[in-house]
Design goal:
This protein has 85 residues and is an all-alpha fold. The chain has one domain. The chain has two helices and no strands. The chain has helices at 14-42, 49-84.
Amino acid sequence: MKHHDHFLRTGPEFPATFRCVRGVGIDEAVLAPAAFSMISDLFAPEKRGRPMAAISMAYSIGGAGSAILAGLVWVPTLALSSVLS
């Protein structure tokens, strides 16, 4: 058995994990259109550029930050699991 096979199995924690991932997906699918709609409602057309750019940049930085953080957690976890197994 490879050291990462246990991450691919579905165990008793799978339903909770699935619900969390589904919740994040729904949140992201709803949040961006609502944010852009609110910006359109709150700012005049000639003043929308900066807020739209700020929210788009925040999504990009947040996505990159989460990928970096996940890598910082995931790689040591895999290394530790291979040492312990």
